[in-house]
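dumping this here so i dont lose it
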């Protein structure tokens, strides 16, 4: 007896710090192509965990977002990166925080999950782990990092200005959920600053009901309860997905922050919310054609 595959879904974000007067067409076009490729993999039966890792790694490498190649240095002059990944089916997670010049922080986070008993490694410890496990590091920072579309040189000196963070949430045909998030952090940040992105439950969450990834002013997402707050609203209040992501963003705004959130449920429902002028986003599912927009 053959079991028919279940629904699948994918949602991506490339950051919520959209300035209305700037051109993000390259990033939106990239998201459009990426979500179509990821949709094909999910439709073919690929695992949600592998899909979110692959999607975020491609965004890190593109230089089109404030993550990976599109990141900027801290006030100490070093590019410090954060990332996390979570397997909702087995409730496992891995993360790295303030790791210098990692080419693919999300892959390093996956290795923390798979190869250590820990959830997070930070700073020099994360860097040593990357070296010992053969993860690529940027050899020439000056020649590698670029300004993403929509970011101008003057932004780099604007303290606590945020433009970035990338994320992916997915449901596979076996009913498994996963989420991953990666960022270069705030422009003008102090050395060692860590936002919500690598914090499981704050920037990233996945369980057997919902997968969530956040972007925006990380300190306020932490204080508002972050990604796990969406799951709690659904579990304990019986709220629907859209009401739950809207509720998180309302709390972030109430505290004085802004940003966005993406989420996918076990049934294949997708939701987006933000309180900024826009959020680079894309989505597709077994019942919805691929799209990408601001």
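and the seq i came up w/
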């Amino acid at each position: 007896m053959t079991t028919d595959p279940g629904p699948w879904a994918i949602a991506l974000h490339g950051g919520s710090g959209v300035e209305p007067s700037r051109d993000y067409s390259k990033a939106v076009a990239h998201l459009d192509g990426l979500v179509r490729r990821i949709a094909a993999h999910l439709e073919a039966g690929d695992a949600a965990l592998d899909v979110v890792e692959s999607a975020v790694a491609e965004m890190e490498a593109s230089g089109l977002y404030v993550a990976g190649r599109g990141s900027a240095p801290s006030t100490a002059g070093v590019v410090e990166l954060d990332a996390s990944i979570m397997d909702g089916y087995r409730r496992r997670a891995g993360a790295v925080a303030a790791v210098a010049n990692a080419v693919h922080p999300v892959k390093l986070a996956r290795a923390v999950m798979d190869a250590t008993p820990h959830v997070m490694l930070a700073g020099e410890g994360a860097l040593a782990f990357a070296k010992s496990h053969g993860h690529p590091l940027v050899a020439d920072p000056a020649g590698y990092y670029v300004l993403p579309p929509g970011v101008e040189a003057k932004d780099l000196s604007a303290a606590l200005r945020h433009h970035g963070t990338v994320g992916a949430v997915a449901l596979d045909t076996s009913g498994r959920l996963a989420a991953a998030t990666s960022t270069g952090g705030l422009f003008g940040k102090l050395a060692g600053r860590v936002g919500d992105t690598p914090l499981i439950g704050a920037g990233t969450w996945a369980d057997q009901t919902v997968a969530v990834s956040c972007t925006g002013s990380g300190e306020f997402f932490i204080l508002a309860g972050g990604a796990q707050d969406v799951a709690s609203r659904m579990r304990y209040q019986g709220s629907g997905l859209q009401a739950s992501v809207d509720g998180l963003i309302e709390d972030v705004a109430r505290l004085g922050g802004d940003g966005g959130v993406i989420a996918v449920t076990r049934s294949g429902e997708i939701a987006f919310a933000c309180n900024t002028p826009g959020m680079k986003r894309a989505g597709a599912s077994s019942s919805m054609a691929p799209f990408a927009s601001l």
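Residues 25-43 form the longest helix (19 residues).
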